[in-house]
Amino acid sequence: MSAPHPRVLVLAGGLSHERDVSLRSGRRVAEALRATGCEVLVHDVDAHLIDRVRSEQPDVVWPLLHGASGEDGSVADVLELLGVRFVGAGPRATRASWNKAVTKSIVAHAGVSTPDYVTLPQSLFSELGAATVLDLVVESLGLPLVVKPARGGSALGVTLVRSREDMARAMVTCFSYDEIALIEQAVDGTEVAVSVLATPDGLTALPAVEIVTDGPYDFDARYNPGRTEYFAPARLPDDVARRVAETAVAAHEALALRHLSRSDLIVRPDGSVEFLEVNTSPGQTETSLFPQAVAAADRSLADVYRSIVDLAAATPRRREAASLV
To answer: Could you tell me the pTM of the whole model?
Structure first.
């Protein structure tokens, strides 16, 4: 049973490339939860965190951390060890979702379509010869391709490659963020993000948000107003809108996620849907996709945040079963 006005500890900051995004998300969620009557504390991820959790004894911890440590399952592991309830997926599900190649393998096994891909470590290029490996990749997968870090967020290190000559530069960019590259076939179509929200009655998909940019949907386009135009709800026929909702819910279930998630999808011109990746800790900034989906559903963001906290507060305290990886 959750407290009438839960005591919530929001974790924001961290040391990843996405620290500023995390801080902005944390501030926004904290302000909204306070408006619902919650007592909210905000804390960074530092050497004092464990002592702070023990001393404050929050009803719920909400990790709003992006990038490594926040989304690789390690903070969730610590919170489970502390025996506290927290928003988001358990550590194993979070870890599986953080690795895009593992994520694609799991959702594909569940029957969700995803573009063909390979994953290659940086060390392999030194051992086999970069030019030879890249020629083989292009020959097998074709062009265009998307090169991205296998573990990472906010489109950092992601490059759309349309010619063989651009592959080397794309790999260098990718390897500056992660030692493993995921190279997948680029899919033409409408890019949409679909947020999934858990409720006491089950999972529900919020309206899809359509993303239209003046170039790649990169870090700058995501967080600096003006580069990107959003349509919420997405401009999709009703049957396609249902299909993208079903795809996002299927991915959420296949990955054993919990209170919320956001799946990035491509709708092909024929209406078929391709899964790209999932985010277990969606950004909550002014330009983030989850808040836009909430607004498109004609719901109060503060009320949705409060419902997430209440659901997390009612989640049993138990270690996550080793069911994924």
So the answer is: 0.92
